[in-house]
Structure formats: structure tokens, C-alpha cells
Write a structure and sequence with these properties.
Elements: E1 2-6, H1 19-33, E2 37-40, H2 57-74, E3 79-83, H3 94-100, E4 105-108, H4 122-134, E5 137-140, H5 143-151, E6 158-160, H6 168-171, E7 181-185, H7 192-204, E8 212-216, H8 222-229, E9 237-241, H9 245-252, E10 257-259, H10 269-276, E11 281-285, E12 299-303, H11 307-319, H12 321-338, H13 341-358
Parallel strand pairs: 1-2, 1-3, 3-4, 4-5, 5-6, 7-8, 7-10, 8-9, 10-11, 11-12
Length: about 350
């Protein structure tokens, strides 16, 4: 099929890296791996930091007219595919264009929560719910999002596609873990990311076993993050800043444990990349983290916010090589087989094939 792909939160062509941009690119890669032709149809960003913000109506209407003119000249695609619409980033383009051109409309990682209505987001929430209702299928990346759409009681058709990665870069490097070396990869920004850094620093101060920590990432909170880890001493913590994907893969292959609490994570593709490199994960059992880390299979999940339990889990794996190696083997298999790009492409193609059969 010819697929018009749109990501209202952040275009896959956006210059700033993020998990959201990576997932958009992975979905495009999976669709192309399955034999479909994908065009990123618009760079329009609908993100609103506060209720009532976002693109102006004239900007939205102008983009709709541009796309309609493009299709009039070059032909209408077979399907519209929107990735990640939620209360801060509704899809103001796809529903009207799909309806006007009689196109099947598909969403991936749509989410809706009733409580946002009381926070001033009712108009955006309504737009998200209308889009979900219109969609021929809503592809959910987590059971949590799937449950949320079902509980919206809107008759939405849902399908589950677990988060996945292209693990080829990590599979090419055999694990060569250095004992007691911990590693984490995350942007340094306010909110959930900073909360995770704070939780990690607090927990590590309780770990008595020898360890070193490598931190990959940068951002506006770097000075504050470095201050969090200062009590551990400069000999134990190394800040590498932003690294290329090749560098990240190489560094992951030499570590023993991936440590990241995951506060508020929708799921966290970095968890899957670490597992693909052969690293057991230690994280909180929170938000979407259990969607990508299987407790006592590919890592250890501890109670959300419990610094003592988190420190104890790290200490346990640092001191128990047999458990660490068992989790490492299962983590690598889980990420490279069950959550591979190839597996996702097959699953995604089945969803779209079933969709096509159901359309008169």
C-alpha cells in the first residue's frame, strides 16, 4: 500500500533526537520492511505546552489544502497512518483528509485519559477521541494504552503491537561486560527524566558494592544532574554527553547492568536497546516499563519510588554473577527475537492485511 505517515507530536524528520522520533522512524522502517511505500506527509507539529496553544487554524487549513493539492496532482494514497496522538498533540489533519478522500484512517500509540478534561484539555481530548472513533484500527504499543482506549467506551477497534527496535547494531557486537560497570542512557531535561536521574543517584548512594557508572546523555539539566551524582565522587561516575548510536552500542556492550528507574516512561526504547546489547535492566515497576522489561526474565523491576529496594536489586546483581548472566542471556534473546524489527514488520503487516480485508 501507499501510506501517508504523520506524527503530530514530532516529525520523524525533526532534527532533535528523542524516543518519540525514534519510534516514528521504526514504524516507518517496519512498514517498509513489510513491503509498503511510506511518505511522511506533513511536518506540521500540533504540540501544545498549554491548553489553547498549538498551531493556528489558518496554519492547519493551509496544510490540509497543500496536501489535497499534492494528492490531486500525484494521486491519493491507500491509507493514512498517524503516530502518537494524545491530549497535547491531536491530529488536526488526518481525520478530515481521510474522510474527504475516503481513506482508511489508522492510529498508532493513541492515548486518552478522562482526567485531562478537568485540566483544561477538553477540546484536544475530544479531538483525540473523535480520531480514535474514526480509525479503522488503533494500534496500541502498550496494554495500558489499549486499556485506556477500551475504557473510553467509544467502540474503538484496537490491536496490540509491542514496542520494538532495530537490533542489528547491537547484535553485531558480542557482549564483553566489565565487572561492576553500570550504564544509563537518557536525555537530561526537566520532568520525568530528571526524576529518574534523582532516583538513580539516591539509590546508588546506598549501594556498598564496588561499581562505576557511565552516563550517556545531555540536555538543559546537565549541571543539575551532575550535582545529583557529585556525592558519589568523580572516580565512580563518568559523564559522556551525547553519543552516536554506534558509540552507544559499543559502550553498552562493555557494561554489566543497565540502570534507569524509568519514572513516567511510556515504555522506553533505551531499555530494549540495552537488553539487545546483553544487559539486564534494573528499573521501577512503573508506567509502561513492564511492557519492555520482563521481571526476573530480562531484568529486575522494583516498587515505584522505593530507593531502598532499587539499591538492593543493583547490589544483588552486582554480587551474583550467575543471576546476572542468566538475565543477560534472556534479555538479549527477548530484545533481538521477540522485539525485533522483523517481528514487528510481520505483526504490523498482519494488522493492516486484516484491516484491508474488512474494508468493503
Amino acid at each position: 500500500m501507499d501510506i501517508a505517515f504523520y506524527a503530530p507530536l514530532k516529525s520523524p524528520d525533526h532534527p532533535v533526537p528523542s524516543g518519540d522520533r525514534l519510534m516514528a522512524r521504526l514504524l516507518i522502517a517496519a512498514l517498509e520492511r513489510a513491503g509498503h511505500r511510506v511518505t511522511v506527509i506533513s511536518p506540521l507539529r500540533s504540540f501544545s505546552r498549554a491548553p489553547g496553544a498549538g498551531p493556528a487554524r489558518a496554519e492547519i487549513d493551509g496544510e490540509i489544502e497543500r496536501i489535497r493539492a499534492l494528492w490531486h496532482k500525484g494521486g491519493v494514497p491507500d491509507l493514512w497512518f498517524t503516530y502518537h496522538l494524545y491530549y497535547k498533540a491531536p491530529d488536526w489533519l488526518g481525520p478530515s483528509l481521510a474522510q474527504a478522500c475516503s481513506l482508511p484512517y489508522v492510529t498508532a500509540e493513541a492515548s486518552w485519559s478522562k482526567r485531562r478534561d478537568g485540566e483544561g484539555w477538553a477540546a484536544n481530548q475530544s479531538a483525540v477521541l473523535d480520531a480514535v472513533r474514526q480509525a479503522a484500527v488503533n494500534i496500541c504499543l502498550t496494554r495500558r494504552d489499549q486499556k485506556g482506549l477500551i475504557e473510553a467506551d467509544c467502540g474503538a477497534n484496537v490491536a496490540l503491537l509491542p514496542p520494538f527496535i532495530d537490533g542489528s547494531l547491537f547484535a553485531a557486537l558480542p557482549p564483553a561486560p566489565v565487572a561492576n560497570r553500570l550504564i544509563t542512557v537518557a536525555m537530561m531535561r526537566p520532568g520525568d527524566k530528571f526524576d529518574s536521574y534523582r532516583a538513580l543517584a539516591t539509590a546508588l548512594q546506598r549501594v556498598r558494592a564496588p561499581f562505576s557508572l557511565t552516563i550517556i546523555g545531555d540536555g538543559p539539566c546537565r549541571d543539575a544532574v551532575e550535582a545529583l551524582f557529585a556525592p558519589l565522587g568523580p572516580q565512580r561516575v563518568t559523564f559522556l554527553g551525547e553519543c552516536s548510536r554506534d558509540e552507544v552500542a559499543a559502550l553498552l556492550s562493555t557494561a554489566s547492568l543497565y540502570v534507569w528507574p524509568g519514572c513516567g516512561e511510556a515504555y522506553g526504547l533505551a531499555f530494549l536497546e540495552a537488553q539487545a546489547a546483553g544487559l539486564p535492566v534494573v528499573a521501577f515497576r512503573t508506567a509502561g516499563v513492564p511492557e519492555v522489561v520482563e521481571h526476573d526474565v530480562s531484568g529486575i523491576l522494583t516498587p515505584d519510588g522505593d530507593a531502598g529496594a532499587y539499591a538492593a536489586a543493583i547490589s544483588h546483581l552486582l554480587g551474583d554473577a550467575a543471576s546476572r548472566h542468566r538475565l543477560a542471556r534472556k534479555a538479549r534473546r527477548f530484545a533481538l527475537e521477540e522485539r525485533s524489527l522483523e517481528t514487528a514488520a510481520r505483526n504490523l503487516d498482519v494488522i493492516l492485511h486484516d484491516l484491508r480485508k474488512s474494508i468493503p
